[in-house]
Structures are given as structure tokens and as C-alpha cells.
Amino acid sequence: MAPVIELDNLVVRLGSRTILKGLNGSLSGRAIGLLGPNGAGKSTLINTLLGFYTPLSGTARIFGKDIRTDARTLRRLIGYMPENDSFIADMTAVRFVRMMAELSGLPSEEALERAHEAFYYVGLGEARYRNLGTYSLGMKQMAKLAQAIAHGPKLIFLDEPTNGLDPAARVRMIKLIREIRDTRDIHLVISSHLLRDVEECCEEVLILKDGDIAAYCDLEKERRSNLNFIELETYGREGDFAEAIEGLGCDFADLGQGHFKMVLNNDLSVADLYRLAAERNVQIRRLNHRHDSLEDIFLKAMEVPAANGSVQA
Amino acid sequence: MAVYKRNYKPYEGRLTADWSRFLVPARYALETLFESRLLIGFMVASLIFPLFAAAIIYLHHNLGALEAMRISPSNLLPIDGDFFAAFLSVQGAYAFLLTAYAGPGLISPDLSNNALPLYLCRPISRTEYVLSKMAVLFIPLSCITWVPGLLLFSFQAGVQGGGWGWDHAHWAWAIFAGSWIWIGMLSLMAVALSAWVKWKLAASALLFGVFFISSAAGAMVNEVLSTRAGNILSLGYVIGMIWANMLQLPAKSTIFGELFNVRRGDEVPQYMAWTMIALVFGSCILLLNRRLRAKEVVS
Questions:
Q1: ipTM for the complex?
Q2: What backbone phi and psi angles, to 5 degrees, belong to B250?
Q3: Mean pLDDT per 10-residue run, chain B (299 residues)?
Q4: Which of A129-134's residues contact partners 24+ apart within 8 Å by CB, and which partners?
């Protein structure tokens, strides 16, 4: 898959602090998550990709276009949902989104049509003629999403999209993000400190720490590769069962009291384990596919010092 | 009624020209601006003097009407450089008041609502953004300065005939260019103040302050140093000098001289007046450059 974002030794310095310390990498997923603790450089990376900050050295490319030289072209392809409140309070919501869509290049009529559609899409159809200043926090988040998608961008940056949302609104936001992600020909970059949001929406995750890449994780690959890692709880003649597993040539650990951990070979399936247990008159009382959660990966990344990371998706 | 599931749809239609994007915020701001009845009333009031001037031109060429009104032609204001200088001065004052009313609200709402990232993540540069905000003032200010000025000039040229328009083309140029210098300076100052002062009323007051304080500072320098060079600090005086030069008028004790408090021998050199204008433009651009950023960087 063609890379969406390429980072080429990207260094960003704000004031006297170096925020991004030579990031390298290539990301190509439909939904890319940016994770990291506060101050890790997530928002700085997004702002740099948007052209708000000029890199001190190095560069980045989006869809193969350099952010230094093709910023204007890139901005035609981009939608941006900022983290903080960002709108004009005394404007009606639909007028504001129409103006933003027109600024992105849509003719006036189409912009109005798309603004209406965007508001219905995010569930604010009935409130679209209200002034933005009268919106609740959750409505403002949805309005920000509406302005980010109204002009039909190819890449959308979502900075903390679930900030301040109640559980129901959060679920709706996640659902919308997933729907947008599954639309053909669109890519998302989601910056969040909420692991669950990223895990639910993203295929790839870049974990930043102190301005460096601490870890890169292809969640899809991770999910697939860990399917063979199994935890078992058995009852009965576990000694016989352990011998039988050993006979299959699988890596396994007998934890005692009928508990096992094992990695299934590719030519074996769970059904083979049940068959084996039935032959040995052993009951399988619990079987879990165990895989590293994003939380495990994140915590591991936070433990080790960031190693001027580079990543290749 | 059929109910359709609403899906996200990419946009694949035509796009507008790149150069025209800066007109979008200007159009929206103008719509908002002209919702104000006060502004409409002010615009109407600002056309009183041009109508009065048009009536004078008409009377100059209609002796029958003068006789009917029992006015001697010698009592009428002559149609000369001073006539157009007076027009520029009065309409310039209206332009200043209109800027003080409409200018301060142009950028401050965007800054206080943190809307700049949303503008600047789109294909519009900071320069275009500023131009779009200035364009909001260009249109009403043009409507009360050079547009009626050139209409008056054309009216006079038409009724006078005999190549009058061609012979006095420099007055037309002075009306057009002089108005644009004033409009440019006022607009730039208004957006710069709007970018720095969030409270609209305070920004309006500051705009007045800039003019009055600069005049007061000029007068103080004149008194303390026993000179007239302090006049250069007065922005009203400076623009008056430039207009006088464009209209090829001596700064004498005429209507123009009275309006700008210019006495013979007081004139400051033109290059100093232009330098002052350039300094004002430069300062405003610096202020805007410092303030208008999608994201504030705190060192």
C-alpha cells in the first residue's frame, strides 16, 4: 500500500525546546493512531503535518507531497478536527461549516448542501441552525467533526476526538469514525491519550515518547499473529494431557493445577485440542486466546527509553 | 416517506479557483456587517456631502437655478483642487469613523474563538486571511470615498466639457490613489488592532487614540523643540500632506489648510510623510505577523 505519511528525520523546535527529535517512518494504514503521554509530541506532529509549524530540519510527506513545498496542495486534501474549541460563536453552525467548506474550495451551493449533509451525518441535523456558542461540549465535538468532513477530504486529522464526551456520545463518535474509516479512499490520523479509542478505530499505532518514536504497532498484524497464543484451564488427568500436547510439538508451559499456556502450531486448530482432551478424558473448562492488548504494548513502550525511533509500516 | 441511511461521501465535484478563496471570509463578514442598521444609516449619512458637492457642480452650470435661488455665482464654492481636497477630507473622516465601527470586530472573534487553525488548515495563507479581512473594509470605504469622488469628477467633466476632464486628470488620480492610501492604512491599522485587542470597544477607542495621541505627540514635539517637524507624528497631517501633493495644491490657508491646520511654511517634506506612512504600514504588518498564527508558540 502506498504510504500515507512519511517522516524523514523530522525535527521540530518550538522556542528553545526541541519537541520532535528526528522522526523517521512510513505509515500507510487507513486509520493511524498517535499515542503518547502528555507532552510526547502528538499534537506537535499533527500541527507540523498541517503546516502550522515549520520543521527545523528534515521533512514529512503526505501522499508523497512534501509538507514544506506542497503545503497548499496538501491542505486541499486534508480535514482537521482540533482538540480545543475552535469555531465562531455567533455564527449558526451550518453557516460556519458552509464557510469552511467554501474555503476548502467547494462552490457555494455544493458547500451548503454538504454542510447540511455533514450535520445530519453527525446527528446534529435538528440543531444546525443554532449558534455554535449555544452548543454543549458534545455537540461542539460533533460540529468540529462536521467541519472536518464537509469538504470530503482524503485525510482527516482528529485530535482527541472523544474529549469531554459522555459514554453515549463517545460510542457515537467512535462509530462515526469507524464508518468514515471504512469509506473507500480516505485515511484518518487519530491522536488520543485514550488507548481504548485508538484500539477500537485504528489499524496502525505510533507511540511517541519525549518527541521520539517509542513504538510502532500494526494492530491488525498483532491481532492476527496472537491468535495462536492460548491459555487453557483443564480438569482431569492433566499429566496425560500435558504429555499429549508435548507430543504435538507445541511450545507450552504447565502452570500446575490444570492450567496451561501454549502456542498452537499453524497446522493445528482448537478443535484438535478438544479432540485430544476427549481422548484423554480431560475436560477443557476454559480456553482463552491471549494477545497483547494495546495497553500492554503502550506500557512496554513507556518502560524502555525511546530509541530515536524509526518505523516502516 | 423513504428514510435513507446517511453515509459519509467523499466530494468529487468541481473546485473554485485558488485565487478566489480569500473572498470567502470577506463575503461572510460583509453579510454580517450589513445586517447592522447603524452601519446602513452611517453609509447613507456619508453620502450627504457628495450629494451636496454634486448640487454645487450642478448650480455652477445652471445659472437659471442660481437666479431662482437668488445666489450669486461668486458665492459658490469654486470647482478646483480645494473643492476635491475638501471632498477627500470630509469623506476621509467618514471613512475613519466607519473603520472605527466595523474594523475592530474583524479578527478578534476568530482569535477569541480559536478559529484560526480552522482557517489556516485550509488552502488559504495568512496573507490571504488578512487580505480577506481588509477586503471587508475596502468595499464600504470605497463606496464612500473614491467611488463618489470619481463620480463627482466625471459629472463636472461632463457638464464642463471642452477637455476639462483631461486637463485635470491628476485630480481624478489623486482622488483614486489618495483614497486607496487612506483606505489601506485604516484597514491595516484596524485589523492589526483587532488582532491584538479582543474587546471591540477598546479596539475602537485605541484607533481613535492612535490618531489623537499621534497629533498630541506631534504638538508636544513642536512646543518643546520649537519646531514644526513634530507634525510628522500626526497621521491626519501626514495624509493631508500627501493628498495636497497629489492634488498639486500648496498647503496654504484654504479649506484644505484649515482642515489640516497647515500654515504656509509649515509643510514637512513629502519624503518624510511617505516614510511615516511606510512606517505605519510596516508596524501593522509586523504586529499581524506576530499575532496571526494557527498555533501560539510559547518559548
A1: 0.83
A2: -75, 145
A3: 64 89 93 91 94 93 85 83 90 94 89 91 93 94 96 94 91 96 95 89 88 85 82 85 84 55 66 92 94 73
A4: A129/A92, A129/A93, A129/A94, A130/A92, A130/A93, A131/A89, A131/A90, A131/A91, A131/A92, A131/A93, A132/A87, A132/A88, A132/A89, A132/A91, A132/A92, A132/A93, A132/A96, A133/A89, A133/A90
For residue B181, give how far its alpha carbon lies from the nearest alpha carbon of chain A (Å).
29
pLDDT for A109-158, tens place per residue? 999 999 999 999 998 888 899 999 899 989 999 999 999 999 999 999 99
- How many A×B Cβ pairs under 8 Å? 115
Q: Which amino acid appears at position A31 of this protein?
A: A
* Closest of A231, A184, A169, A176 to residue A200, by C-alpha: A176
Amino acid present at B213? I
**CA-based nearest distance B16→chain A, Å:** 5
Amino acid B191: pLDDT? 94
Q: How close, in Å, is residue B116 to chain A by CA atoms?
A: 8
Q: Do B28 and A99 lie within an 8 Å CB cutoff?
A: yes
Longest Cα separation, chain B? 85
Calpha distance B34→A57 (Å, rounded): 47
Distances (CA, A) of A53 to A9, A25, A67, A71, A209: 15, 19, 10, 11, 19
Reported as half-sphere exposure (CB side, CA atoms, 13 A), residue A270 has a value of 11
What cell was used for A224? 492476527
User: Cβ B6–A120 below 8 Å, yes or no?
Assistant: yes
Q: What amino acid is encoded at A110 in this protein?
A: E
Neighbours of B210 (CB within 10 A): 14
Instruction: State the pTM of this model.
Output: 0.83
To the nearest 10°, report the CA torsion of A225, A227, A233, A237: -80
Nearest residue to A288 (alpha-carbon basis) of A218, A250, A234, A244? A234
Q: Nearest-CA distance from A215 to chain B in Å?
A: 27
> What is the DSSP code string of chain B?
------------S----GGGGGHHHHHHHHHHHTT-HHHHHHHHHTTHHHHHHHHHHHHHT-HHHHHHTT--GGGSPPSSHHHHHHHHHHHHHHHHHHHHHHGGGTTHHHHHTT-HHHHHTSS--HHHHHHHHHHHHHHHHHHHTHHHHHHHHHHHHHHH-TTHHHHTHHHHHHHHHHHHHHHHHHHHHHHHHHHH--SHHHHHHHHHHHHHHHHHHHHHHHHHHT-SGGGGG-HHHHHHHHHHHHTT----SSHHHHHTT--TT-PPPHHHHHHHHHHHHHHHHHHHHHH--SS----
Query: In A, residues 44-103, which contact B (CB 8 Å cutoff)?
Result: 47, 50-53, 72-73, 75-76, 78, 80, 82, 84-90, 95, 99-100, 102-103
Taking the C-alpha atoms of residue B202 and residue B207, their distance in angstroms, rounded to an integer, is 9
Q: Is B64 on the interface with A (CB under 8 A)?
A: no
CA dist B103 and B257 (Å) reads 29
Contacts of residue B15 in chain A, CB cutoff 8 Å? 76, 105-107
Which among A75, A90, A186 has the least Cβ separation from residue B10?
A: A186
